[in-house]
Design a protein that fits this description.
The chain is an alpha/beta fold. 23% of the residues lie in helices and 25% in strands. The structure holds fe (ii) ion (2 copies).
């Protein structure tokens, strides 16, 4: 699959750019998405070095390179950020949104230009896109990174959840949408318990997003949650003990 339109509203599309399929991706398979709003693209976690060619090919079927004007880097990991070197070569004016904790680490990528960085404060922020649609950067610190944001697209009613909802599947098992939630939890369980920092942070996040009208949850890894699976996913998160609340790492237990 190349691109899939996940949602389309007036002048506003939410598009999957491939590919969470472990048979396709080097390293940890990851999904990339873009919001195409009034002819401009905002990339959501543009991805690692090896996926640049695919994501670039797919997004430029929809907009010209100079219309890729924004990218969210939800946190600092290489599967989120490493392709940014190539992106800035084709679109040096792209605005990068990332946690104020992480913007000082960008020089370590030896970027080809001095990028236009929006250092997002801990409390998050709201971005007004070209059509007037707004997206919210919602704090999800400790889930898993200490400076970490998810993005809520108000018009599309979609939560881009970054690594929250990540599922690591064996080859052959990947699907774009979750089809059997109960069976799907086996692919999420290990990652969430080990990587998420604290149960307290997780509960606070769930409280923060309570009541938001969310039709779809789109994670950076694994499959998209839709319909009743959205609330099933949040309920499942609410049952987890994670990080050091789950167990003390390194004690051999
Ligand atoms: Fe990560
Ligand atoms: Fe990730």
């Amino acid at each position: 699959m190349d691109t899939v339109e996940i949602s389309a509203a007036d002048q506003h599309q939410f598009v999957w750019l491939g590919s969470g399929d472990p048979e396709v991706e080097k390293g940890i398979a990851s999904n990339q998405y873009a919001i195409i709003d009034a002819g401009e693209a905002m990339l959501l976690d543009p991805g690692g070095y090896h996926c640049f060619e695919r994501v670039f090919t797919n997004v430029t079927r929809l907009v010209k390179p100079e219309k890729i004007t924004r990218a969210l880097l939800s946190h600092q990991d290489p599967d989120v950020v490493a392709s940014i070197i190539s992106w800035l070569e084709v679109q040096p004016r792209m605005k990068l949104y990332l946690s104020a904790l992480w913007d000082r680490f960008l020089p370590h990528f030896a970027l080809p230009v001095s990028p236009d960085v929006v250092a997002v404060p801990d409390e998050g922020s709201t971005i007004t896109l070209s059509s007037g649609a707004v997206v919210h950067l919602i704090p999800a610190h400790g889930l898993h990174s200490p400076g970490n944001f998810v993005l809520y697209d108000e018009r599309a009613r979609i939560l881009f959840s970054g690594d929250l909802g990540a599922a690591l599947m064996p080859p052959g098992e990947w699907k774009l949408f979750v089809e059997d939630f109960a069976a799907h939890t086996q692919y999420m369980d290990g990652f969430h318990r080990r990587f998420l920092g604290s149960t307290k942070a997780l509960r606070a996040f769930l409280k923060r997003i309570e009541g938001l009208p969310i039709d779809l949850v789109c994670p950076q890894h694994g499959s998209i949650f839709r319909g009743a699976d959205v609330q099933r996913f949040f309920a499942w998160l609410g049952t987890l003990e994670v990080g050091f609340d789950y167990r003390s790492w390194g004690d051999g237990a």
